[in-house]
Design a protein that fits this description.
single chain; 384 residues; alpha/beta; Aspartate Aminotransferase, domain 1; Aspartate Aminotransferase, domain 2; 2 domains; seven-stranded mixed β-sheet
């Protein structure tokens, strides 16, 4: 007799995410949480008031499936101003329940059993499971050295007739590195004449430092014609719990994404979309973020300058890698756990994102925190 409790898992090897593990430990040991990527300061009061205003005006039922018209138009204007690329708000922009849902829809829409998807490691931990759920094969390429550079020749050699998609992420989580113009041009040249789709995760596009320009896939015509670009309001405007993002893509790609979007979430939070549509009409709300977060990065690094950690300043995101090899030779998972239990500070070990858990003796710290929190964390780090 068959046992209904005997199931065949689509993700048999999946374990709880490192973010869940470290945040749970931070709560258990009452530790300062610099692990999971979320700010511990408030969203702009102006934006919260706009949400309240939208609710009071009655925007509490389903919005259009692919997003509020005004917001799609404002997103199109923003991209045109920043990257000189025109997207049609009617057919090429979709609002999603966070960028992770945009990534899920993009992969699910195009990956069939046996398709290969090139993933650059370390990588955000939703990419590979979503590929596997759809019967695809992740083709993993390790970024090189402790500064995590792309070897484009290795990427090129990994392309086969079964390659359906390449996923890039810039600015890069978890390393804080960025792809430069020369990187994007090499990628554009490599993909010319192929039918490979580019999935570009750009959720930290407005968090980029030291005068570097963000190189969106939207900027280069040879990439934009094949690219699905995913973005996040939550990462940008300090409200990750609102779970609001979007993706842009040429119409021939977007019409397939819509099919998946419609049968997963159908539409996303109406009053928040109305609020964002008003809020991003003021470009300073996103253009000033690089300066805001660079000050936090610099404060954190100045505070730990006399510590035994080694580092290269993060070029983007709100994450900073610290090398602890002058402190201990423990593997990074063990050291991260001990840092929580014995010293009250939570971080993320980087090896869990690498091929074969390659361990560079690095921990990732989130500096999207109040100055007081960063000062408390730095005091702990300087005592190690």
């Amino acid at each position: 007799m068959a046992d209904i409790r005997t199931i065949s898992s689509k993700l048999p090897d999946t374990t709880p995410s490192i973010f869940s593990v470290m945040s749970r430990m931070a709560n258990e040991y009452n530790a300062i949480n610099l692990s999971q990527g979320f700010p511990n300061f408030e969203t702009d009061k102006k934006l919260k008031k706009l949400v309240t205003k939208a609710m009071k005006k009655g925007y509490n039922q389903y919005p259009p499936s692919h997003g509020v018209q005004e917001l799609r138009e404002e997103i199109a204007k923003k991209i045109a101003d920043l990257y000189d690329k025109e997207y049609d708000p009617e057919t090429e922009i979709t609002l999603t329940a966070g960028a992770t849902q945009a990534l899920y829809c993009a992969i699910t829409a195009f990956i069939h059993p046996g398709d290969e998807v090139i993933v650059l490691k370390p990588a955000y931990d939703s990419y590979e499971p979503t590929i596997q759920i759809n019967g695809g094969k992740p083709v993993l390429i390790q970024l090189k050295g402790e500064n995590y550079k792309v070897d484009w020749n290795e990427v090129k050699e990994a392309i086969t007739p079964r390659t359906k998609m390449i996923i890039i992420n810039t600015p890069h989580n978890p390393t804080g590195t960025v792809l430069l113009e020369e990187d994007m041009k090499k990628l554009e040249e490599m993909l010319e004449g192929t039918d490979i789709i580019l999935l570009s995760d750009e959720v930290y596009e407005h968090l980029i430092f030291d005068g570097i320009d963000h190189q969106s896939a939207s900027k280069l015509p040879g990439l934009a014609e094949r690219a699905i670009v995913c973005a996040s309001f939550g990462k940008t405007f300090h409200n990750t719990g609102w779970k609001t993002g979007y993706c842009v893509a040429p119409e021939y790609l977007m019409k397939e994404i819509w099919k998946i979007h419609e049968v997963t979430v159908f539409s996303v939070n109406h009053p928040m979309q109305k609020a964002y549509s008003e809020y991003i009409k003021t470009p300073e709300h996103y253009l000033e973020l690089s300066s805001f977060y660079q000050k936090k990065r610099d404060l954190f690094l100045n505070l730990i300058e006399q510590s035994r950690f080694k580092f290269s300043p993060s070029l983007g995101t709100y994450f900073q890698l610290l090398n602890y090899s002058d402190i201990t030779q423990e593997n990074d998972v063990t050291f991260a756990e001990r840092l929580v239990k014995e010293h009250g500070l939570a971080s993320i070990p980087v090896s869990v994102f690498n091929i074969d858990q390659k361990d560079h003796k690095q921990l990732r710290f989130c500096f999207a925190k109040t100055d007081e929190t960063l000062e408390q964390a730095a005091e702990i780090l300087c005592k190690l």
